[in-house]
Design goal:
The protein contains three helices and 23 strands. It is mostly beta strands. The protein folds into three domains: 18-73, Beta Barrel (OB fold (Dihydrolipoamide Acetyltransferase, E2P)), CATH 2.40.50.140; 80-140, OB fold (Dihydrolipoamide Acetyltransferase, E2P), CATH 2.40.50; 156-298, no CATH class. A six-stranded antiparallel beta sheet has the order 13-12-15-21-18-19, covered by helices on one side. Strands 3-2-1-4-5 form a five-stranded antiparallel beta sheet. The protein has a five-stranded antiparallel beta sheet with strand order 8-7-6-9-10, with no helix packed on it. The protein starts with a helix and ends with a strand.
């Protein structure tokens, strides 16, 4: 059978790996690999950078196709502090200076930290914070020790959440990976995990929500799109709620920000179509980005 140009395009699109950004909990390191707990399983993955998070830190992971790497810790810890009490072999350090947050930290052999010293802090390894150098001695200058600047806190975020599966339900079963918006089908894209709710805080303000919809066919009335509560395909037809008529339905399509409010709390999990109109959208097997949700929010 001769392949059509559409078949060739679909074959090339199927080879594009999916991209997924999600969170885990750092559990340790061995043989230069990070051990990260994600839900009820532990992953052993390579890590970017030359330092390890602290055990128990929440970390970001990036999956491209079948490969996963750890990007680093979600927590931002000050790398500059000030000595508030001497001691041996550890001194008390406030980090950042003026914050009121203190911790006992070890320091280099031969150093003699004094109250007011400004110090550099390393969070590498399991020690939980170690002074690596005294950069300003309390007695080395006139007047009070200047407060080191506090790094700005990130407040605006935007992530693209890819889907792990998709499909259409008809005549008692899931019959295709494509997503049919038609009177005889209920269809949806599925994230595969609670990664959206795990990433976006409940108190975040949603700025925008868009979905990537590659159209294979568009010949009928406007489909109705909505939200559903399934991480993976249910045994029966999916229930689609919070319906709205889809206007433009090709490429990145804007959705109500209220969908983001439902997804961030885990009340809803993904996006689907309830059976109105007639259109056929690519599934995840044809396009690795099909159904992906681009969500922007601020704290």
């Amino acid at each position: 059978m001769t392949s059509t140009s559409a078949d060739v395009v679909a074959e090339h699109l199927a080879g594009i790996p999916g991209v997924d950004l999600f969170l885990g909990v750092f559990a340790g390191a061995g043989d230069s690999l990070a051990q990260v707990n994600v839900d009820d399983r532990q992953l052993t993955v390579p890590a970017l950078g030359n330092s390890w998070p602290m055990i128990g830190d929440r970390v970001r992971l990036l999956r491209v196709g079948k490969a996963t790497i750890m990007l680093g810790s979600v927590q931002q810890r000050a790398t500059v502090g000030r000595v508030t009490a001497p001691g041996s072999p550890r001194c008390t350090v406030e980090y950042p200076a003026g914050s009121g947050v203190t911790q006992l930290m070890g320091y280099p052999k031969g150093a003699t930290p004094e109250v007011g010293d400004v110090v550099l802090i390393s969070w590498d390894g399991e020690a939980g914070g170690t002074v690596t150098a005294i950069v300003t001695a309390a007695g080395g200058q006139d007047g009070p020790v200047p407060e080191p600047p506090t790094p700005p806190k990130q407040t605006d975020f935007q992530y693209v959440f890819t889907m792990s599966d998709s499909g259409s339900f008809r005549d008692g079963g899931w019959w295709t990976n494509q997503v049919y918006a038609s009177p005889s089908n209920q269809s949806a894209y599925f994230p595969g995990s609670g990664k959206i709710a795990d990433t976006i805080p409940d108190d975040a303000t949603i700025d925008s929500v868009a979905i990537w919809l590659p159209v294979n066919r568009d010949t009928g009335n406007r489909p109705r799109i909505g939200t559903h509560s399934y991480q993976t395909k249910p045994g029966g037809p999916p229930t689609i709620s919070n319906l709205t008529e889809l206007g433009t339905q090709s490429g990145w399509v804007q959705l109500p920000t209220s969908y983001g409010d439902l997804l961030k709390t885990g009340e809803q999990s993904g996006i689907g179509f309830d059976g109105a109109g007639f259109a056929i959208f690519a599934g995840t097997q044809q396009d690795g980005q099909a159904g992906a949700l681009d969500i922007a929010w601020h704290l």
